[in-house]
Amino acid sequence: MTRLTILASALAIGGFASVTSLTDTPVFALGNPVAAQQQDPQAHHPSAAEEAGMQKQEAESMQMHQKMMAEMKAMDGKLDALVAKMNAATGDAKVNATAEVVTAVVQQRAAMRDAMMQMQGKMMGHMMQHMAAGTSPGMKKMMAECPMMKMMMPGDAKK
User: Fold this and answer.
1) What span, in angstroms and rounded, lies between the C-alpha atoms of 45 and 134?
2) What is the pLDDT of residues 39-85, one digit of tens each?
C-alpha cells in the first residue's frame, strides 16, 4: 500500500510539473512574433560613438578601481601601525591607543561606504548604457520611466 501511495504521489507531482511547465510561457514569447522578427538587427548594436563613450567610461572605471585599491592599501597600513602601537602600549596609553584604532576603523568604514555608493551609481549608469545599447526603443522607454531605474541612475538622470 505504501509503495502505491508513493507511486501515485510521484505520478501526480510529475503530471503537475509537466502541466505547469506548459503554462510557464516566458513573457518575451507573448505578443507578435512576426513583428519581433522584422525588427532591424542593427537597432540592437551600439553606434561607434556610443561604443567609444562606453570604452572611455570603462577606462575611467579601471583607473578609479586602481585608485581605490591604493587607498585601501594605505588605510591598511595606517591600521597596522595603530594596532602595533596599541599592542605595545600599557595602562592608560593602551586605552587611548585602542580608541585611536576604533576611531580610524569608523572613519575608514564611512569613507569606504561613501566611495562604494558613488561607484555603485556610476557602475549602474554604465550597465544601463550597455543594456540600452542593445534594446528596442520600447524597452528603452520603459526603462527610462521605471522609478527603480530612475533611483539608481547617477546625477541628473534621477530627475
Assistant:
1) 5
2) 555 555 566 776 777 777 778 878 888 888 999 999 999 999 999 99
Say whether 26 sits in a helix, a strand or coil.
coil
Work out the mean pLDDT of the chain and round it to a whole number: 72
What's the first-to-final CA gap in the chain, in angstroms?
67
Q: How many domains does the chain have?
A: 1
Strand ranges for 1-159 from DSSP E: none
User: In this structure, is residue 111 part of a structural domain?
Assistant: yes
| 36 within a domain of the structure (yes/no) | no
Q: What is d(CA 77, CA 86) in angstroms, rounded to the nearest whole number?
A: 14
Domain extent at residue 110: 55-135
Alpha-helix runs per DSSP H in the chain: 2-23, 33-38, 48-88, 91-133, 137-145, 147-152
